[in-house]
């Protein structure tokens, strides 16, 4: 009879361990699923994921993406400044990137104030800023590093705007 009780005790311990393991794994899968769901709403999920790692809250995801866009835009400004003399498309792009930096800072302030409408307005302007930069290169049929960066910034800003629409 003692062997039977021992077996039941071991069986109960194994069952409890399996249940805990299943709960842990399902929690990780659910978290990964929520993160993937944020990016799955965007037009460019592969560009979204690096900024939204382990974030399931749309407000935080949007804030982090805004911060990343600010940093990348400032780097693009430095690059554009090198070549803006004598190249009208890069000069125009430099000006619109400067506008984008201002609009991103304003969007970041708006998200902190929980003013979603203002934030979306600024983010829409950012998408437009990057689009104007890219359009200038398309019209002049130029392909260069500034243009390539502007295309990526436009895609990331589009993702950012989409993430901002998920904020409740």
Structure explained in plain terms:
With 168 residues, this protein is an all-alpha fold. The protein has one domain (45-164): Invertase/pectin methylesterase inhibitor family protein (Butyryl-CoA Dehydrogenase, subunit A, domain 3, Up-down Bundle), CATH 1.20.140. It is 82% helix and 0% strand. The chain is built from 6 helices and no strands. The longest helix has 39 residues, at 2-40. Mean pLDDT is 84; it is low at 27-36.
End-to-end distance, in Å? 60 Å
Helix/strand order, N-terminal first? HHHHHH
Query: How many strands?
Result: 0
Beta percentage is under 5%
Q: In percent, how helical is the residue content?
A: over 70%
What would you say about this model in short?
The protein has 6 helices and no strands.
Layout of helices and strands, plus pairs?
Blueprint: H1 2-40, H2 45-48, H3 58-83, H4 88-112, H5 116-139, H6 145-164
What key attributes describe this structure?
Pectinesterase_inhib_dom; Pectinesterase inhibitor domain-containing protein; single chain; 6 helices; Invertase/methylesterase_inhib; Butyryl-CoA Dehydrogenase, subunit A, domain 3; enzyme inhibitor activity; mainly alpha; 168 residues
């Amino acid at each position: 009879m003692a062997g039977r009780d021992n077996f039941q005790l071991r069986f109960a311990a194994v069952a409890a361990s399996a249940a805990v393991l299943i709960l842990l794994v399902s929690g990780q899968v659910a978290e990964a699923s929520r993160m993937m769901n944020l990016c799955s709403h965007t037009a460019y999920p592969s560009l979204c994921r690096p900024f939204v790692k382990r974030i399931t809250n749309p407000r935080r995801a949007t804030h982090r993406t805004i911060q990343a866009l600010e940093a990348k835009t400032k780097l693009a400004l430095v690059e554009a400044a090198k070549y803006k003399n004598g190249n009208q498309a890069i000069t125009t792009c430099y000006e619109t990137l400067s506008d984008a930096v201002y609009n991103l800072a304003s969007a970041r302030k708006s998200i902190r104030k929980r003013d979603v409408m203002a934030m979306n307005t600024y983010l829409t302007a950012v998408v437009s800023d990057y689009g104007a930069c890219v359009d200038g290169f398309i019209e002049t049929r130029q392909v260069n590093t500034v243009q390539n960066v502007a295309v990526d910034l436009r895609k990331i800003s589009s993702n950012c705007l989409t993430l901002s629409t998920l904020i409740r």
